[in-house]
Each structure stands twice: as C-alpha cells, then as structure tokens.
From TrEMBL:
Gene: mobA
Domain MobA-like NTP transferase: 6-155
EC number: 2.7.7.77
Main subcellular location of this protein, as a coarse class: cytoplasm
Database matches in InterPro entries: MobA-like_NTP_Trfase, Molybde_CF_guanTrfase, Nucleotide-diphossugar_trans
Protein name: Probable molybdenum cofactor guanylyltransferase
Top enzyme class: transferase
GO biological process, one term: Mo-molybdopterin cofactor biosynthetic process
Keywords of this entry: Cytoplasm, GTP-binding, Magnesium, Metal-binding, Molybdenum cofactor biosynthesis, Nucleotide-binding, Transferase
GO cellular component, one term: cytoplasm
Cofactor(s) the protein requires to work: Mg(2+)
HAMAP family recorded: MobA (MF_00316)
PANTHER family: MOLYBDENUM COFACTOR GUANYLYLTRANSFERASE
Length: 204
C-alpha cells in the first residue's frame, strides 16, 4: 500500500450530462464505485467526497464517504474537504467522471513528488487539475483563495509550489491510450466510454 490518501470528487452539478454523472454506470457499476475499487488497491485511505453521501448505494473496503465542508459547488471545495479529512500528508485527487484511470500511472506519479505542494500532469499544454497530487501544505493557500471567492484552481497555482509533469513519454509508458485523462461530461462521452469498455475488454 502506498502512503497517500485518495479523494474522488463526486459533488458536481452534471449540467452537461443532464443527471448526476457520478451515479452513471458502466457494466453495472457507477463511475464512482469503479474508481473506489481501483484506488483501494493502492491506498488504504480513499475518500469519496460529495454534497450528499446518501446518494451512494455501495461499499468498498477502506473507502469512506465524506460530505463537503462548504456548500459552494466547485472542485476546490472537494479538494479542501479532502485535505482536511485525509489520513496521509499527500492526497491524490481525481474527478468521479474518469473511470478509466490507470493506477500504475498514479503510483509512478507519486514517486515524483519531492518538496512541492502539488503535482499535476500537463498534456498538449493543458493542465489536468483533477488528476494529481495535493499535499497538506497547499491547504492554507487553497482556503485563502476560497475565502476570497476565487474558486478556479488555475487562478491559484501561481501561489503554490507546483510540479508540472510535462513528460508525455512518462505518461505513455504507463497509460498508452491515455484513458486516465478521459472525462465523461456529456451523454456522447458516456456512449463513447461504454464502447471503449466493451471493445477493449478493459478491466475498468
Ligand atoms: N466534492 C465535490 N466535487 C465537485 C464539486 N464540484 C464539482 N465536483 C467534481 O469535480 C469534477 C469536475 O466537475 P465538472 O465536470 O467540471 O463539473 P460538474 O458540475 O460535475 O459538471 P458540469 O455541470 O457539466 O460542469 C466532477 O467529478 C465533479 O463531481 C463540489 O462542490 N464538491
């Protein structure tokens, strides 16, 4: 087991999806449950963070359901809640709409964290804010911005020591198809995800 906690952010509004996407299923399991099962293989402290944990109807060993500390709707709230409640100093953060994450990539990324506050992958210039590691050392700054009403993560990183993992080869070594970065935002994304799961026979 690794020495980091994991937070599955499952508290969004799913406006583009049209219904709560964190409960949408592939092969009979919700995205959230698929992620919980994967992450509990690499961490003994997995938090499923949402606005109302009673919406979930599954249980996975070493996973805890946690309610957001604040009512505002944004991933920043989920991250702050996770950092306050997690057992380890380092928290892997992932959005609940990414059921295809590769846990070997997550483990290898963790090894790259040295003294920084945050580690985030960058692909084709895009920063993946919800597939990365956040240390407890980032909490004060995150809360400071939240209290000022700045909720957009990209507006906060300048004040944190962020390690940007801008190394495509490294990522491809563990996740050839880069499915870790596939977010399911719309119904079209959902249909595509079901096809991917079926075609590749992927263990998702
Ligand atoms: N815990 C928690 N997670 C959140 C919150 N807001 C968004 N998330 C999660 O953050 C991830 C990214 O959210 P988005 O896809 O940008 O937003 P969304 O509200 O889910 O979807 P849209 O309404 O279509 O933008 C998703 O996994 C959400 O469930 C929040 O307030 N609390």
């Amino acid at each position: 087991m690794s020495n980091f906690s994991c937070a599955i952010l499952a508290g969004g509004q799913s406006r583009r999806f049209g219904s709560d996407k964190t409960l949408a299923k592939i092969n009979g399991k919700s995205f959230t449950e698929i992620l919980a099962e994967k992450l509990c293989r690499i961490s003994d402290d997995v938090l499923i963070i949402s606005k109302d944990s009673s919406k979930f109807d599954f249980n996975v060993e070493s996973c805890r359901f946690v309610d957001d500390e604040y009512e505002q709707q944004c991933p920043l709230v989920g991250i702050i809640t996770g950092l306050k409640k997690c057992k380890y100093d380092t928290l892997f953060v992932v959005s609940a709409d990414s059921p295809f994450i590769n846990i070997n990539l997550v483990k290898e990324m963790y090894k790259l964290i040295k003294n920084g506050d945050v580690l985030l992958p960058v692909i084709d210039g895009k920063i993946y804010t919800l597939f990365g590691f956040y240390k407890k050392s980032s909490l004060k700054i995150l809360e400071f911005y939240f209290e000022k009403g700045v909720y957009r993560l990209l507006d906060i990183y300048d004040d944190l020591n962020v390690f940007y993992l801008d190394n495509l080869e490294f990522i491809l070594e563990y996740d050839k198809e880069m499915l870790s970065f596939l977010n399911i935002n719309t119904r079209e994304d959902y249909e595509r995800a079901k096809e991917i799961a079926q075609k590749s026979g992927l263990e998702i």
